Amino acid sequence: MKILYLPNEFSQQRQKEKRRWIYPVRLAMEAQHYRNTGHTVFWDDPTVSADKIIVEPENINFLNLPYPDRIFTNAFAKKYQGNGNFKYHPGTYIQVANGCWHGKCVFCVEQGRKQQVREPWHVHQELSEIKRLGFREVFDDSGTFPIGSWLDEFLRTPHPGLTFGCNMRMVDIDYARMKRYGFRMMLFGIESANQGTLDRINKVVRIEDIKWIEKAHQSGIDCHGAVMFGYPWECDGEALRTLKLVQSLLRCGILKTAQASFYKVSGQDSRSDHHRFVRKIYNVCWSPQFWFHKIKDTKTIDDLKYLWRQIKEGMRHDYRN
């Protein structure tokens, strides 16, 4: 069969609120599966006449998938290097697991999905190939990076000479050990500063679990925070509490970066008037304390380039509104 893959700006995204070119690692893994099983596969060539056109993952059994051929799938393309998850370029994405080991948050596409996790040796085999190709940094796009005995085994394998980023829940783990291994950045889902909201979305964390983000920060990890607005049961004051929390964490340098998305769950009407809080996060750019920490963290040419990319990205937002 002739199969044509046509990735787009949404192919690797869980939340499809805005277009973003992220290397579609899951799509690329499935493309390699078809290549390995004898199909003729084309990648990102709209001139091809094919029997089947694929633009998003088909959810082939994750543990049966090989890691992708990053030359065939053009992982070095400039469009895949433009997102903020990489400080060191070129960078690429991997996917260690399908799903999240918590998997119970009501807003998440991972809800109810049992996490499937690749063997550490297989992941390291892929990382060795990534290093050989010349990539400098990788970001794992699993719903949540595995912890426990899997993480311990992963960290006991010789370091592949790459810098890492991943998604992480607010939990007590050995962040210092991960930092020594090469983990640079972690994305934490904070979601809300209101305990009642955290309970209703089944996050199964306490507000005080912010301390684990502080622990990661103290270990030298660059922490990125993600929050949401638009919860239908929250009033303006509760949304403002979340806004003030994330701005405070940014000003004091515990969070290096942050993002806000909008709560959307089928059958529930979001607070559309809370869209205004999403962009207000970026008002923190007017804080001298925020810039003090940014400048303090800028020590190398890579740091300077990364800061400049953040400034350019930030200039696209209307901070004053």
Provide an overview of this structure.
- This protein has 10 helices and 11 strands.
- The longest helix is centred in the C-terminal third of the chain and has 16 residues.
- The chain is globular, with a radius of gyration of 20 Å.
- The chain has a 6-stranded parallel beta sheet.
- It has 2 domains: 67 residues, no CATH class; 231 residues, Aldolase class I (TIM Barrel, Alpha-Beta Barrel), CATH 3.20.20.
- By secondary structure, it is of the alpha/beta class.
Low-confidence stretches: none
Query: What's the overall geometry?
Result: globular
Name the strands of the widest sheet in spatial order: 4-7-8-9-10-11
Q: What percentage of the residues does DSSP assign to strands (E)?
A: 15-25%
Q: What is the highest CATH level, the class of the largest domain? A: Alpha Beta
Which radius of gyration do the C-alpha atoms yield?
A: 20 Å
Number of domains: 2
The average pLDDT is: 92
Biggest sheet statistics: 6 strands, parallel
Write down the CATH topology of the largest domain: TIM Barrel
Number of DSSP helical runs: 10
Q: Give the helix level as a range of percent.
A: 25-40%
